[in-house]
Amino acid sequence: MAVTVRFGSFVVDSGSRQLSHTVNGVVHLTPKAFDLLVLLIGESPRVVRKAELHERLWPDTFVSDATLVGLIKELRRALDDRETSPPLIRTAHGVGYAFAAEVHTVVQGRPSPTSRWIVAGARRIPLAQGENLIGRDPLLTVSLDSTGVSRRHARIVVGPDDAWLEDLGSKNGTMIDDQPVTQAVKLRDGDRIAVGPIVIVFRASASGMSTETVSHTVGNR
Q1: From 24-28, 89-93, 180-184, the region with the lowest mean pLDDT
Q2: What's the DSSP call for residue 199?
Q3: Cα separations (Å) of 112 from 103, 134, 210, 221?
Q4: For the chain, where are the E strands, in sequence order?
Q5: How many C-beta atoms surround the C-beta of residue 119 within 10 A?
Q6: Which of 148 and 205 is assigned the larger pLDDT?
Q7: Which residue of 41, 57, 107, 219 has the lowest C-beta tally within 10 Å?
Q8: Which distant-in-sequence residues (6+ apart) come within 8 Å of 129 by Cβ?
């Protein structure tokens, strides 16, 4: 079953075998490095011993420790996992490695018991499980036709039990209930989200989408 995992500014989609960054787009990884990343995330926060990594990544094949170390270096470069920051991949010296970041997992195809949608003026826009992009691009889930809205402005990631809002480095910023969004924020039913000069409303209900309409605008910042 395909699984999408979000941590920080990154999203890992096991179905499409793709690592992406919310601002920079798709991040290239070699196939084996991607396998290692998915393995470490799946076992997080456990330290996976080197012997187990070798067995699961290269069954019935001998490879040196240098090959594993090379894959770890590739992941750290791709994830911009600098030594000066709290590490995403932790080294347990002489033992193995662990994925240390907080992750949010969405199992694709699992129905959510709660309907979630956006009210934008007279429109009611349903949100799907996983990533829902917001911006000026007409192909996005929530398309807002305003010059004050960036092409890819923000996103809402819907999980089985919750939904999170993130700004994607937009020019005019994203606010929730008059507070700037500087990191992922958990959404609640009725939250007013200012996407640049446009205000939209997040709704969540176990009984499905209502027929309400809401229209709000705010001035340019």
Answers
A1: 24-28
A2: E
A3: 19, 21, 17, 36
A4: 3-7, 10-13, 18-21, 25-27, 48-49, 89-92, 96-99, 104-107, 115-120, 123-126, 130-135, 142-143, 154-158, 163-167, 174-176, 179-180, 185-186, 192-195, 198-205, 216-217
A5: 22
A6: 148
A7: 219
A8: 106, 108, 109, 110, 112, 158, 159, 160
Specify whether the CB–CB gap between 49 and 91 falls below 8 A: no
Mean of the pLDDT values across residues 142-155? 94
Q: What tokens appear for 85 in the block?
A: 């920051």
Q: Tokens standing for 202?
A: 């997040």
Q: Is 202 helix (H, G, I), strand (E, B) or coil?
A: strand
Measured distance CA(212)–CA(202) in Å, rounded: 12
Number of H helices, E strands in the chain: 3, 20
pTM passes above 0.85? no
Cβ–Cβ under 8 Å, residues 22 and 9: yes
Number of residues that this document lists for the chain: 221
- Mean model confidence pLDDT for the chain: 84
Task: Tell me the two tokens of residue 78.
Answer: 């791709």
